[in-house]
Specification:
Shape: globular
CATH class: Mainly Beta
Largest sheet: 6 strands, antiparallel, barrel
CATH superfamily: predicted glycosyltransferase like domains
CATH architecture: Beta Barrel
Strand order of the largest sheet: 1-2-3-6-5-4
Radius of gyration: 13 Å
Strand content: 35-45%
Order of helices and strands: EEEEEEH
InterPro entries: PilZ_domain
Distance between the termini: 41 Å
Organism: Qipengyuania aquimaris
Helix content: under 10%
CATH topology: Thrombin, subunit H
Protein name: PilZ domain-containing protein
Number of helices: 1
Structural class: mainly beta
GO molecular function: cyclic-di-GMP binding
Number of strands: 6
Length: about 110
């Protein structure tokens, strides 16, 4: 039996990443509330750049504009960064509205 996270979304590392500057308070299932800074986000997950105390395989819940509460699993950790994969698929129209909300600078948004 595998001990890893059972995710409904396959790891699609080629998804377009959108640079953002978005602080969140994540609900960690063992450590309680943790402040995190999302540095980039895609339709499948996000990367934080302040990953002190976060380990691969851990689960968190974050509240994002438009999307609401969503669970994510830590897929990788390196230096002070960590990558998380969402536990469910985000609809394209909701994701685009999210980017418009958290990345107000149109020059930093990817072409659609």
């Amino acid at each position: 039996m595998s001990a890893g996270a059972q995710l409904s979304v396959t790891d699609q590392r080629r998804m377009a990443r959108h640079p953002v500057d978005h602080p969140v308070i994540a609900e960690h299932f063992g450590k309680g509330d943790m402040r995190m800074h999302i540095a980039n986000i895609s339709a499948n997950g996000f990367m934080i750049d302040d990953a002190d105390g976060v380990n691969r395989g851990e689960r968190i819940v974050v509240r994002l504009p438009v999307i609401g509460r969503i669970e994510a699993y830590c897929i990788w950790c390196r230096d002070n960064r960590a990558g998380f994969q969402f536990e469910r698929i985000i609809r394209v129209d909701d994701f685009l509205a999210l980017i418009d909300t958290i990345q107000p600078n149109p020059r930093l948004r990817k072409m659609r």
